Amino acid sequence: MDVRSQISMVFHLDKCIGCHTCSVACKNLWTDRKGAEYMWWNNVETKPGTGYPGKWEDQDIYKGGWEKDGEGIRLKGAGKPKSLTNIFHNPHMPVIDDYYEPFTFKYLDLIESSAGDDQPTARPISMITGEPMDIKMGPNWDDDLSGSPDYARNDPNFANLTDAEQEAMFELERMAFFYLPRICNHCLNPACVASCPSGAIYKRGEDGVVLINQDVCRGWRMCVTACPYKKTYYNWNTGKSEKCILCYPRIESGLAPVCMHSCVGRIRYLGVMLYDADQIEAVASADEADVVQRQMDMILDPFDPEVVAAAMANGVADSTIDSAQKSPTYKFVKIWNMALPLHPEFRTLPMLFYVPPLLPVVATVSEADHSERAGELHDIAKHWPDSWLYDTTTKELFGTIDDARFPLEYMASLFSAGDTTAVADRLKKLMAVRLHRRLVTVGDVAKETVDAALADTNLTPLLADEIYYLTSLAKFDDRFVIPAAHREQAIEMIEFTGDVKGNTGFGFKVGSAVRGA
Amino acid sequence: MGEELFRTTCAACHTTGTDRLVGPGLQGVEDRRDHEWLVSFITEPDRMIAEGDTIATRLLAEYIVPMPNLGTTRAQAESILDYIASANEAPTGETSGTPVAQAPATEEQVLLGQALFQGHTRLANGGPTCNSCHEVTHDAVIGGGILARELTTVFSRLGGPGVRAIIGSPPFPVMQKAYEDRPLTEEEVAGLVAFLERADAEQELHQPRDYGIKLFGFGVVGAALLLGLYSLAWSGRKRGSVNQEIFDRQISSI
Predict the structure, then answer these.
(1) Among residues of chain A, what percentage have pLDDT more than 70?
(2) Closest Cα to residue A46, out of A12, A20, A84?
(3) Which helix (H) or strand (E) holds A269?
(4) Neighbour count for residue A499 (Cβ, 10 Å)
């Protein structure tokens, strides 16, 4: 058993309101630079939709992630032979139009134009060429199902849905969507790390954050192809690739990453999980149907004395083990079994988990006879001559999972490599907690219904209350349990700090990396 | 002193008899030319040719190879002329500077010469390889220099003795300087002469083939084949943006 610690994340999609605050916070902090304008280390997509970059989930186009190769696995679009034969032209890379061409506006024209007959306008200009341009796209162009014939209809997750199911999703009265915020998954088996010919990408030993060393990166861009989530980006100004760094400077000083800190819906959770690194290869090569469950099994119980002893023997700090025991992500992922990784079939073992959105049907539309009530209306009231009834008083208040607005196959395609029972289990738990709380707070649900729902999902009222607390009432320190970074130990590995004590202060000998070729 | 000078500086191209090597045989030269003209020509032949001296110009036209300025002083020129005169008065009538009749070159000699010319075999005394300055049209020789004369036809131009004489003791200043302390051995000279003779005799067989327009044609066809192969090998590549269709339609509808 090779116990290591990993900072993992849970995004609770039921709570995401799609406000893009996370994206803007990240953009302002990290990618508001020349060459990085088009990058969104954090982005929020509308599902169904093609996302950013367009159709990133379709690995027939982008060749990202791993694929089965006999007993083992191999990179789909990178690796030694493929990298060598494509050394001068990487043939499956996204182009700028797959993301979008970043733009700004010539605001100065508004105030500096000479007097004339026409009102001055601020023309859009490209942030790459500086020339005036026609805006064709943005990073969230398909937000809230806009342009759905072009975007939502082409969602790669529809592959397993029948035409009838797809049509049902786009019926005007039934259309639904949810938001999918995405950052780097800081995978356990990262394809970007495996693909880098320069060895510039590494997974930090102490917390598993995946980073690109800007001094070593040579701009081969194999990681851009290899990452199936398209979360490494090429900076055309510095000639190097960049990616989400999980705000490690913030984490090291005990602060939550800025996307999580700024989250309006408080959907994001961050905490340490201990896992068995010996199993990575076996789990990544498992049958597609088993990958999710085996990844869950790989995560170890931080209360198990054997695990704790192995972790300590492996150099995991006491404070980290303590954090792992308090970790909110461990609760969501392992104890309550409510979260799933995004696209586990890419076999990178992502450590960002999603609680799938419930999207309950809270009302039904049925035909009814309104003629009786018509006489009650005042003369000036609008009288609807149709016979539809929008009914919010159904017996099953939240409907059942099978009535959910999204076919389970769609959710399963996103979160469980096609396993609908895995998704249904999680949705049922969400539903059971809701029913329980409805009983507690409103009391208009039959107790038998609630008890049945809880029993069906192996929950107790106490457990349901715990889930409710972490979902809805959790405070900052409940949502983010950040382990101490122990930089004092790291610095002592590099230099003897006694030498500089009393001089100019502590610091690494190596100056900050000068970016750029 | 005169004999020594004649042997080292003149004998490459001239005999004291009547035989013509590169230049004319010099028997009775004092009877044919004015003494003062001879001394001037021996000391500064390049100047006289440049100034358009009638006799010098006529000689150049006849013998093709111009006589180089060998830096001879007037006193040396006098002693050389004395030696030529005395050599002709010798009772035996023997002439010096005439190479003995050549035995036909062996195949080994030709191969040795070929190797020496290209530098596959170094010259024994360390002199520079021929093809650093000279070129010969011969299938076995690749890429000679263009600093000095092209030597394919040297044998027919100068004849065996001339070639042998020039290689043995070069009359040209650059070559003289190059081989001053590093003279060629007898076998090397024989080998090179044999090789040059062979190259001259077989030059018709060693002409590079002229493919004309076909060469260009093959180039075009080859490039097309390669490009076709590449596009086949990379036929699965991603072409353009996944959103191109959307952009095209939106722009055309404006």
Answers:
(1) 91
(2) A20
(3) strand A268-276
(4) 8
Which chain B residues are within 8 Å of A134, Cβ to Cβ? 251
Q: Inform me whether the C-beta atom of residue B86 falls under 8 Å from chain A C-beta atoms.
A: no
Q: Model confidence at A482, in pLDDT bands (50, 70, 90)? A: very high
B 207-246 residues with CB < 8 A to A: 234, 236-238, 240-244, 246
Instruction: List phi, psi (to 5°) of A306.
Output: -65, -45
Do the Cβ atoms of A91 and B238 come within 8 Å? yes
Of B240, B250, B251, the CB nearest to A95: B240
Does A111 touch chain B if contact means CB atoms closer than 8 Å? no
Phi, psi angles (nearest 5°) of residue A423: -70, -45
Per-residue model confidence as pLDDT tens digits over A264-290:
999 999 999 999 999 999 999 999 999
Q: B250 at the A interface (CB within 8 A)? A: yes
Q: Is residue A495 part of a domain?
A: no
Total domains, chain B:
2
Residue B153 inside a domain? The answer is yes
* Same domain, yes or no: B202 and B111: yes
Q: Which domain holds residue B54?
A: 2-89
Give the number of domains in chain A: 1
Q: Which residues in chain A touch residue B240, judged by CB atoms under 8 angstroms apart?
A: 95, 97
Q: What is the CATH number of the domain that holds B27?
A: 1.10.760.10
Residues of chain A with Cβ-Cβ distance to B251 below 8 Å are 134, 136
**Across the interface, do A92 and B237 touch by the CB < 8 Å criterion?**
yes
Q: Which residues neighbour A262 within 8 Å (Cβ) at sequence distance 6 or greater? A: A21, A22, A24, A25
pLDDT band for B208, please (50, 70, 90 cuts): confident
Answer whether B238 sits within 8 Å of A62, measured CB to CB. yes
Contact A124, A133 (CB under 8 A): yes
pLDDT digits (tens, 9 = 90+) for A177-188: 999 999 999 999
Structural contact between residues A30 and A41, judged by C-beta atoms closer than 8 angstroms = yes
Asked if residue B235 belongs to a domain, the reply is no
> Does the model's ipTM exceed the 0.90 cut?
no
Could you tell me the CATH number of the domain that includes residue A157?
3.30.70.20
Contact across the interface for B247 and A97, Cβ inside 8 Å: yes
Domain end, chosen from B164, B179, B206, is at: B206
